[in-house]
Amino acid sequence: MSYGLLLAAHLLGAVALGSAIAALYVLDQRIARASDCGTLARAGRSAAAIVQRLLMPGVLLLAASGVGLVAGFYDGLGFVRIPWLAGMVGLFVFQSIWANTIKRRHGQRLGRLLAGRRAADRITPELEHARRDPLALFGQRMEPLLFALIVALGLLRPMAWGVVLAAIAAVLLLAALPALYAARPPAPTSRSSASVDAEGRA
Predict the structure, then answer these.
(1) What pTM, to 2 d.p., does this model score?
(2) CA–CA distance from 32 to each of 27, 39, 98, 175 (Å)?
């Protein structure tokens, strides 16, 4: 296959993957703000549909065209000596593994906790704890940043390992700090504090 066709397929895969990651990020925010089980379940079903119809095709197209480009035009395994290309490949593989392990297990956990609940039911403490899981929150913020970094590496093509590694470290830090902040348990309201005080006096 010619370079032009492989590149076009690669760009199409990148658009599909980027669109899926953006849509999933929006749904993650909806899940984080949901106050009832019905809203949470609907957001989860929408996320599953996006994964099946947009994210997975994008990943497969990117992987197939990327292998073709690397094998045919970047000296096969010699790509590991090219910092920007090795960074792109490594980050893509890492992001794919993360999505199929950590993110997938988190979605399955939420699904199990939602099983048997009615749409109007309020969010249970177990569901609240699950959706504030620090690792899941870290992933939600990391994935869009990693995708943006992959695109930036492909466009700017830095040839210094220090630049690539510094960019990766910055992305991980930018994802970790907000995730740790968001994972904090919600502060008790004045009503709940008053209830606790009243129970203690009783």
Answers:
(1) 0.83
(2) 9, 10, 20, 16
